[in-house]
Amino acid sequence: MAELPRRLRPGDTVAVVASSGPVDPARLERGEDVLKGLGLDVIVGSRVLGREGFLAGPDSARVVDLQAAWCDPAVSAVICARGGYGATRLLEPLDWDAMRAAGPKILLGSSDITALHLAFAKEMGVATLFGPMPACALLGDPEGPEPETLDHLRGALFEGERAAPVHGDRVLLPGRAEGPLGGGNLSLLAALCGTPYGFRADGHIVLLEDVGEQPYRIDRMLTQLLQAGSLDGAAGFALGSWVGCGDPGQVLDVLTERLAPLAVPIIAGLPIGHGSPQFSVWMEADGVIDTQSCSLTGLFRDPEGAP
Predict the structure, then answer these.
(1) Are 189 and 230 in contact (CB under 8 A)?
(2) Starting from the edge strand earliest in sequence, which strands make up the sheet with 170-173, in order?
(3) Residues annotated catalytic, as ranges
(4) 3-class DSSP state of 111
């Protein structure tokens, strides 16, 4: 199991950075207020509102913000403002020696941030949090944050709290599985296949989710991962949201056809990924799939031993 960072306490400082796509200033401001409402001191990277085409500024600027935040001893968590595209471009230029020397802390993000989750696990052996981001709709909406999303984030993020189990809506293959949670956004897993940061299941419960990908593309990406051996040794599968991915029944048929031959427990319909609500889960921390309750339960324990 990866090293577990200390979870947050009220008054901790968190840094918001833009590792991927351009950030909407108004939405970011609202999301920042949500984090402050949780009792956190928030600093925003100096380059968060940069823009270069479909990126939040040049790679060099995004690397500087991310690395400076991680290496700042006053910062307890680094929170990615949004996903989009671009995190994969940062993996080579990051100074991993400097990042390792800074010690473990929390990384929070999802979608394109899957690339950072995989790289942080490989290079630093630290557990990271897959969850909502401040410049995205569920936290930065003008009507306020989505309540279930915020409550579950609080439970996952803060010391002494415990996030509720995440329940799906159907069982594709029965059974019980335990292991560290891995995977993330399917498109990013496929994009990193064959790179030094590619995912290997090897005893993991594998989270899969995506947005805006038609069933044939989901089939193609799963086939790529299967043929590359990336899913060999999976303990089980936790399937999240597939927003905008065409006919839900066809998506489920594709997932079942490609994954059921692996003969491990599979649950589907978990509110993790791009849907609403969006629950938070710790990557590389131990979890349990129980198909009797159609649930994924995280077993994160604070380093001090508190539940």
Answers:
(1) yes
(2) 166-167, 295-298, 286-290, 176-185, 205-211, 236-243, 266-268, 170-173
(3) 111, 209, 274
(4) helix
